[in-house]
Design brief:
The protein is an all-alpha fold. It is 80% helix and 0% strand. Helix 3 packs antiparallel against helix 4, helix 3 runs antiparallel to helix 6 and helix 4 packs antiparallel against helix 5. The protein is elongated.
């Protein structure tokens, strides 16, 4: 009597399920950092584009835009952390002037406006390359990215 082994892809399934269970147990109830959320949900957006867009030329262009969007989000998260660190430093200085605070916020506001413009450019470039049918799941993944980033904790915030 010969044992019939499952196909190779199914042999690894129990191991993958165990690994996933361990990861979920280790992460239970902990908010991800902004960087973790950006990485995770950018992957979801990447997968949505890869799954939905069959035309290789458009898919390659769109995946490059997703990579740029991820870089933008990571850079803006770092800029925001730098703002908080600078604010804390100014706030700890009893003699810090109002002008110093106003300059800090003016600089950050300019950074925010540039990032917003770049994000909108990337969004509309993605939409222009997608068909209406392709766009629905891609837009959903893009929304998940922004929702996750808005609720994620800062890297130095307690879990």
């Amino acid at each position: 009597m010969h044992l019939k082994l499952p196909p190779p892809s199914f042999r690894l399934l129990p191991l993958a399920l165990c690994a996933a269970a361990l990861l979920l147990c280790g992460c239970g109830g902990k908010k991800p950092t902004k960087e973790q959320a950006i990485t995770q949900y950018s992957r979801e957006l990447h997968d949505a584009v890869a799954d939905q867009v069959r035309d290789e030329g458009r898919r390659v262009q769109m995946l490059a835009l997703v990579d740029r969007l991820e870089s933008l989000q990571l850079r803006f998260a770092q800029d925001t952390e730098a703002l908080v660190a600078s604010y804390r430093k100014l706030d700890a200085d009893y003699g810090a002037s109002r002008a110093a605070f106003e300059q800090l916020f003016a600089d950050y506001n300019a950074t925010r406006i540039r990032a917003r413009g770049e994000a909108l450019d990337l969004h509309f470039q993605l939409a222009a390359l997608a068909t209406e049918e392709e766009w629905r799941p891609i837009a959903r993944a893009e929304s998940h990215l922004y929702e996750a980033v808005s609720t994620a904790r800062a890297a130095d915030e307690p879990r």
